[in-house]
């Protein structure tokens, strides 16, 4: 059971430590505080995993679910950092995560009923934007943060970053089993060893890290509440809830326990509670890790207590900062090369979700195109909204926030019943029109007539007949 639990930790470890590394670097945290941030993320990921898999009262799906820091929160958190002074950013972030987690907990039973308003078209668009908006972070890790610095984009940095990227890809191609699942970690290890003689490894954090530390509430800052920052994190939490719902449905099928409304609500409560607890101890928003669902399917080990054991291992890693300090030895160019693969995987997940959304439908294609355009503005041009009021910039400077809002609104606009009636006024090849009883709401009892055009898709789901 312990070894099987460690496999789950190995499959998601890099994903847990990457967000605190990204945020810590953006904040310019000193080595000791960066170690605490990593430790807090590991500890809270372990707590959230145990809560989700074992369950308490009506909290936790009681499935072999691994929870950890969601990548979706990184982009809006970086936008908050850009808007706040560095010493004020963490308290604002924790206040936003705390409120978002509490609201997610309270909204869980209602969200489980309203999930149909967030179809694959919207969800896939947002996940794709998450991956794309994080790409510049990986590139800056390789080249450097300051374009005016003499060593910016120096050949040794680019070489080690590119070598790490290629190595991670090759390891995933040729390794099998457990080694394939930890290919990212192997790539980081080999890249760090290769970068050491090049003078790119900083051992300061490791030398100063304490062996043992019990995280205390609000050790990195007392929460400060900001409306616009909270809104951006709430949007991320909303998307995370949608992703977790999809993951619960998929995992329920694998372990032969269909995910009903009650199970989904319990799982979403665990996401909210885990995020709130995470904010208290210095972490960020928590949600399910989809790669671990694949591990359950691959190994056939369906016991939730195996995953709970992995959660216990994560807690131990969080209690020993020296272990977190080992992670901080990874130089930025190495981390950047591996991160590009990781961020690309997030983008690929979004595209995979979009493949179920019927993009052959011109309306759905327009929803995706418009949302992508709006969401990529702050990614391509970070200064685009610099003349807007500061109260709006926290949301506008995050491609994930603007893209999500655009996707929701455009999906309602282009896939409402009114537009569908116009499209179906002259049905092709004699196909009978199929209308929803209310704008934007699918009639669960309706039986659609045979049709050939993908334009007869469900107005809420936004997908064609091949969905």
From TrEMBL:
Membrane-traversing stretches: 32-51, 63-83, 89-108, 120-142, 154-175, 182-200, 220-241, 305-327, 333-351, 363-380, 392-414
Annotated Pfam families: Xan_ur_permease
Region ranges (Disordered): 421-467
UniProt topology in membrane: Multi-pass membrane protein
PROSITE patterns noted in UniProt: XANTH_URACIL_PERMASE
GO molecular function, one term: xanthine transmembrane transporter activity
Subcellular locations according to the entry: Cell membrane
Keyword terms: Cell membrane, Membrane, Transmembrane, Transmembrane helix, Transport
Annotated InterPro entries: NCS2, UacT-like, Xan_ur_permease
One cellular component (GO) term of this entry: plasma membrane
Similarity annotation: Belongs to the nucleobase:cation symporter-2 (NCS2) (TC 2.A.40) family.
Name under which the protein is recorded: Xanthine/uracil permease
Protein source organism: Saccharopolyspora erythraea (strain ATCC 11635 / DSM 40517 / JCM 4748 / NBRC 13426 / NCIMB 8594 / NRRL 2338)
